[in-house]
Amino acid sequence: MRVAVVRETREHETRVALTPELVGRLTGLGWEVAVEPGAGERALRPDEEYAAAGAVLDPGLAHDLSGADLVLSVQPLARERVRRLRRGATTVSFLPATQEPALVADLRDVGATSFAMELVPRISRAQSMDALSSQSLVAGYRCAVVCAGLLRRFLPLNMTAAGTVPPAEVMVLGAGVAGLQAIATTRRLGAVVRAYDVRAAAAEEIRSVGAHAIELELPTLEGAGGYAREMSQERAERQRELLTPYVAAADALITTAAVPGRAAPLLVTAAMVEQMRPGSVVVDLAADAPTGGNVEGSVPGEVVRIGGAQVWGGRNVPAQMPEPASRLYAANVTDLVALLTRDGALDPDWEDEIVASSCVTHDGEVRHEPARLVLEEPGGETA
Ligand SMILES: NC(=O)c1ccc[n+]([C@@H]2O[C@H](COP(=O)([O-])OP(=O)(O)OC[C@H]3O[C@@H](n4cnc5c(N)ncnc54)[C@H](O)[C@@H]3O)[C@@H](O)[C@H]2O)c1
Q1: CA–CA separation, 195 and 329 (whole Å)
Q2: Any catalytic annotation for residue 280?
Q3: Are 165 and 285 within one domain?
Q4: What is the domain-level CATH number for residue 368?
């Protein structure tokens, strides 16, 4: 068995799929681990650490993965790399299957078995493989420190001989994994934090990390599996209206709201941001979502001014802390690989819920139904 760890090629990707401390988990199975030189460089993991951990550095991986049985990456492989995979090779990466149908078709046609980390079900047994959560944790923390850095004022209360400086008021919208981490981090820095989420269970979680839960006179929106449901247009407008005074009163706003498989909801209009005081800060984690973020006018990777506020748009936020993000991702990936392994060889149990849910292509077929439906649409193969 030969495992290849590639250097990521997508723009702004700085993470690496396997970190040196986890090489031994795979070599311990009798597998060879080949690492493309420079794969860990941007995550501050130099080639020497991989070599010392027992990996082989192979410059040839940059243009030829045909010798690999298993390819590990963070982002999906480029199409030209996929087309040259060995028939029956396995890939493990994030793989937005419905958004990249042509890539899925290539994986199918080359006979690859591909697994998408974002499709690992959120069941207790799969917690150690949950890359969405591990990367959201990093993103939520990063949003909080970006917010603290941009805000030109204290977050904590300071009582000094020269007088009292009040604490900053931070508002967080969306209290999933990232939002709760943003709340916990801004609380640790001493801010007064208020947060809102459409799920009923979120209020208790918000309070448990030391923030005030904003309760609006609106029905909650619980969907399947403990996730949020999409808002109707009417409800979205009413929610924005009810949140306007809270946004106007905040020194900083952090938005982290998402609904799986749907566009990120527009929670805050530019007009709402314009009501914030000069010097306010808005951090929109969702800014790089395909159809726009939670805040109207936010731009991924940039700080723009709306009224007197600075608005920071997230762009691949976990990759902004590549060392810990890679460490956590690598742990998720190696745990999934362990699940796919029997008697030292890749031999997935297709009856296993985690295996079945996270597989996108296998044996010349698209197994992930939503991706198959996209491919069956007219023009789906080339989209
Ligand atoms: N292994 C597990 O069991 C496991 C692991 C991780 C998360 N979860 C749960 O899954 C749920 C979602 O977590 P996530 O971080 O993936 O969420 P997510 O990234 O899908 O969304 C972030 C948050 O945005 C909220 N949201 C959506 N629309 C909103 C709106 N219009 N206004 C305000 N907030 C809105 C969602 O309710 C969610 O809390 C949570 O209940 C979390 O505890 C379970």
Answers
A1: 28
A2: no
A3: yes
A4: 3.40.50.720
Measure the CA–CA gap between 282 and 276, rounded to whole angstroms.
10
288 is catalytic: no
Burial class (CB in 10 A: 0-12, 13-18, 19+), 36: buried
Examine the domain organization and report whether 37 and 167 are in the same domain.
Answer: no
Q: What is the extent of the structural domain holding 363?
A: 2-129+325-382
What's the gap in Å between 178 CA and the centre of ligand 1? 8
- Ligand 1 neighbourhood includes 199 CB (under 6 angstroms): yes
In a domain, 291, yes or no: yes
Assess whether the C-beta atom of 136 lies below 6 angstroms from ligand 1. Answer: yes
Q: What is the pLDDT of residues 200-219, one digit of tens each?
A: 999 999 999 999 999 999 98
Per the structure, how many domains does the chain have? 2
C-beta 259 within 6 A of ligand 1: yes
Span 299-308, pLDDT tens digits? 999 999 999 9
Q: Which of 197, 231, 353 to mutate to test the pocket of ligand 1 (most atoms within 8 A of CB)?
A: 197
Q: Is residue 206 part of a domain?
A: yes
Angle, helices 131-150/322-340, rounded to nearest 10 degrees: 170
